[in-house]
Design brief:
The complex is a heterodimer. Chain A is of the alpha+beta class. Chain A has one domain (about 10-170): Trafficking protein particle complex subunit 3 (Muramoyl-pentapeptide Carboxypeptidase, domain 2), CATH 3.30.1380.20. Chain A contains five helices and four strands, in the order H-H-H-E-E-H-E-E-H. Chain A has a four-stranded antiparallel β-sheet. Chain A starts with a helix and ends with a helix. Chain B has a single domain (about 35-170), classed as Trafficking protein particle complex subunit 3 (Muramoyl-pentapeptide Carboxypeptidase, domain 2, 2-Layer Sandwich), CATH 3.30.1380. Chain B is α+β, with helices and mostly antiparallel strands. In chain B, strands 1-2-4-3 form a four-stranded antiparallel β-sheet. Chain B has helices spanning about 5-35, 35-65, 70-85, 130-140, and strands at about 90-95, 100-105, 145-150, 160-170. Mean pLDDT of chain B is about 85; it is low at about 1-5. Classes of the chains: A alpha+beta, B alpha+beta. At the A-B interface, helix 1, helix 2 and helix 3 of A face helix 1, helix 2 and helix 3 of B.
Chain lengths: ~170, ~180
């Protein structure tokens, strides 16, 4: 019964955002890039407002100060809140200490979008990217987040230099 | 995909908040894109309609309700099963018209409007108009033409939110009037 209820409350958000938001934005933009930018903007609107509630629930009384901490928060509680389960993988880029990937092997679209359009999983990911960017910024880890296809649907997080520098200086303590 | 019992209500709450926030982002975007509230209301209704025509299948599949024999049964199913399933609330049914073709759904609380305030310059915005479209679209797919509108709204200062549903006629053909 509990599982049913969870599934039920997950339906409207999944029904709403990939399909409705995407369709709406698609009619008003001239290119895929613009579409993704629009969706990212909507995601930011949501992310900014969702962070406090999420943190209050998941990490009461503690604020993440290290990059690893915030990344684990993203992979776990944030992903669970958005998609119902943890992200598949968290990786660091080989050649760049500022860049991390959150990877989801299954496309980030659920079964309610009846016609899978080619870009639909990337579009949902664009929304998630905007959301994540707002969350990281508001949490004190300014970054650029973008959606890509790399071993699955991937959100690429590129932290500002200052964030990495600060993290290094914290390492000693 | 495993979930622990304790986490159940927390994720559900989070999902519901994300839903509310996502809806808010959508309405905000619409307000930016369209100059006036009336157009936003129409868009919300249209989007709701498109959701409703697809949602009905999901609803019928998951709820296992059979065909409703009259409008009263329909009202019951909408309030007690559909609203519960998708929004987690059970509105009450009141104000039946003498002919039995009109009734009101009273929502004590509306998850779409948690944390929402209507600014003064949007006093004619029907914030939750998406719901009207959803109901209209879903019922059209089961051969019922209805008129759905908000007559009271907590966002506008009323004590409850009231949706008035009126049965217009049975739809005989199966031609879907898609608005896509």
């Amino acid at each position: 019964m509990a599982l049913n209820e969870l599934h039920a409350s997950a339906v409207p958000i999944n029904e709403l955002h990939p399909s409705t938001l995407v369709q709406y934005c698609q009619r008003r933009v001239a290119s895929v890039a613009e579409l993704q930018a629009r969706l990212a903007q909507l995601g930011q609107h949501v992310g900014l407002r969702a962070l406090d509630a999420l943190v209050a629930r998941e990490r009461p009384g503690r604020r993440e100060t290290k990059v690893l901490g915030v990344l684990l928060f993203v992979k776990g509680p944030l992903w669970r809140a958005l998609f119902g389960r943890e992200a598949d993988k968290l990786e660091q880029a080989n050649d760049d200490e500022r860049t991390f990937y959150v990877i989801e092997r299954e496309p980030l679209v659920n079964t309610f979008v009846s016609v899978p359009r080619e870009n639909s999983s990337l579009n949902c990911a664009a929304f998630a990217a905007g959301l994540l960017e707002a969350v990281l910024g508001a949490a004190g880890f300014p970054a650029r987040v973008s959606a890509h296809w790399h071993k699955g649907t991937t959100l690429m997080i590129k932290f500002d230099e200052a964030v990495i520098a600060r993290d290094k200086s914290l390492e000693g303590r | 995909m495993s979930r622990q019992g304790g986490r159940g209500t927390e994720s559900k709450k989070m999902n519901s908040e994300l839903f509310t926030l996502t809806y808010g982002a959508l309405v905000t975007q619409l307000c930016k894109d369209y100059e006036n509230d009336d157009d936003v209301n129409k868009q919300l209704d249209k989007m709701g309609y498109n959701i409703g025509v697809r949602l009905i299948e999901d609803f019928l599949a998951r709820s296992n309700v059979g065909r409703c024999h009259d409008f009263r049964e329909t009202a019951d199913v909408i309030a007690k099963i559909a609203f519960k399933m998708y929004l987690g609330i059970t509105p009450s049914i009141t104000n039946w018209s003498p002919g039995g073709d009109e009734f009101s759904l009273i929502l004590e609380n509306n998850p779409l409007v948690d944390f929402v305030e209507l600014p003064d310059n949007h006093s004619t915005l029907i914030y939750s108009n998406l719901l009207c479209g959803v109901l209209r679209g879903a019922l059209e797919m089961v051969q019922m033409a209805v008129d759905v509108k908000f007559v009271q709204d907590t966002l506008k200062g009323d004590s409850v939110t009231e949706i008035r549903m009126k049965f217009i006629r049975r739809i005989e053909d199966n031609l879907p009037a898609g608005e896509e």
